[in-house]
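debug: dumping io for the single-chain case to check the tokenizer round-trip. Nothing else runs in this session.
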Amino acid sequence: MNTARKRLFGLFAIILLILSTTTLCAASEEIRLEELAYVSPQASPTGQEVTVVGSESGSVLLVLKGKSLYRVKLKGIAFPPLGNYDPIRLSISRLLRNTIGKEALIETEKTNNLDGPAYVWLKTEEGTLLLQSLLVSNGFASMAGKEDEYIDLAPAQAFAKDRELGIWDENRDKLLTVSTETLGINVSGIERVDGVQIEDVRILDNGDFGFVTLLVKRDGNLNGVILSIVSSTDRARDEDSITISSQRDMKAGDSFVILIALDRAQTPSFNFDEVWITYLDPRGGFLRLSSPDGKQSLYEYQYSRKVSSYVVTPLN
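debug: decoded output
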């Protein structure tokens, strides 16, 4: 293939992502990667192999290499200031959560410690895709580097701007009419969930597996109850969630165990009631219970060396 054709296909090949549609969690508002556009950069995938296990504050991915956990900042892009319930912010969160459990290549100048800025190449059945280009192609982020950067994201940004996608939509501000006050996000003003509570949190193998045990407080079922992983930097934002669909009749005092795992194919042989394919940070964090009637309970879980286990504390 001559140079001109390489440049044509490398810079301007617009493809739709055809990925596995396996659901990573039971969240009802999941963004699907195969619905997104992608501008292929003129670069070859390379880097150290890792597994994506979570995200922090949007621009940082949590990845595992062996048993070591690293925080990788997405190099070459920037996210604009967005409100808590801006549709673009929610789309970014759902997209990043949809990368959990996927293998990736971290392209960085570092050889040992992977913490810090890097390019992230996601491995899929259809090929290896640059996460930064995926975000920019859909208007979820803008290029932050210069056009002469090692990986040029200018074609991806031009594609999104020409089609007024995401942040480039001139009419998007008119659609953002819902305020946090209308949605009642002030934790102190929300009535606690009174039919169920988080009783126990356990995390094994550096986050490969975990359990969240719910304690039923009154007779009935848990159908429609939502368990969420809450952002550590913004308690109004859920990073991931699962909606319980069990119709099983339960008595006050019964327990409902949710197994958390990175890979459904490697589910351990423990007793549990439901599986949630996600990542629970072993360093601690926040969880939320929401009931169908709008009540919410916010919890913090932290590891205590004194009792050699996690301590769950209600915050409202």
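debug: round-trip ok. Helices lie at 3-12, 87-97, 131-137, 154-162, 172-175, 180-183.
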